Every structure is written in structure tokens, then in C-alpha cells.
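I would like you to sit down with the record closing this message with an eye to the fold:
=====
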Amino acid sequence: MLKDIEIEKHSNFSLAVCRNEEEHELVYDIFLLNTTDEIIENVMVSCSGHGEIDGQQKSTTLMRIMVGDLPSFSFVKIESIIGDTIQLQNDFFVSGFSSNRLKDMVFKVVIPELKDGDIEIVQMIDKEGWIF
């Protein structure tokens, strides 16, 4: 039965990481973008962080976010990364249906490795950030 399910890498999912300062605290907002002219149905995002903080291995709880349908050329905020978790590698597993096919993408974000020189305008949300 598993062999009957075709899973495609969906290059039209994008992830945007936008730096934000809220009440004197640095926050990184994570947005999922649909850059296609098709609706993506039943979008589900699983995310977790892992890595080293102060010499000790740490991980965050696995979060599952049911986005639902993501209309064409739209976006949704998935989460905000704050505090010590900024140091971790954050993994985002995104799945959804488009054209009756399961689409799947994995994004790995390590915020300390993002370079200011790579910042661009994320036009869909009208903010500066990094696009994956």
C-alpha cells in the first residue's frame, strides 16, 4: 500500500525567517509561503529544535501545526523562535495535497548561520528576511 502513495518534493513551498524585535527581545518569526497559483490542501507542519546550548545537548518538544488549506500566493505564520532556542537547529517538515498529490518538504534552519548579507525583501509578507 505504501508503494501506491507518490510523494513529491514540492518546490513551491517556501519558508521565510524574519527577524523582529519585541519588547527589547530578539524574535525570529517563521512563515510558510505558498508561491503557486494552486491551493495546497490539508497542510501540516511538524517542527522541532535540537543542538547544543552552553555545552549541553538540548531539544525542543515536537510541535505539530495543522494549517489547513493554504490559498494560492498566501502565507501563514508558523511559530516564533526566541531565547536560547535561537541557537538550535530548527527542522520544519511540511506536507500538503496539491493536484491530488501529496507534496512534502523539509527545511533545516540554523539561525546563527544566517548572514545579514543574504537578507532580502519577502514580498508576500512585506518584511525583510531569509527565504528557504
User: Anything to note?
Assistant: The radius of gyration is 16 Å. DSSP finds no helices and eleven strands in the chain. The mean pLDDT is 89. The longest strand covers residues 40-53.
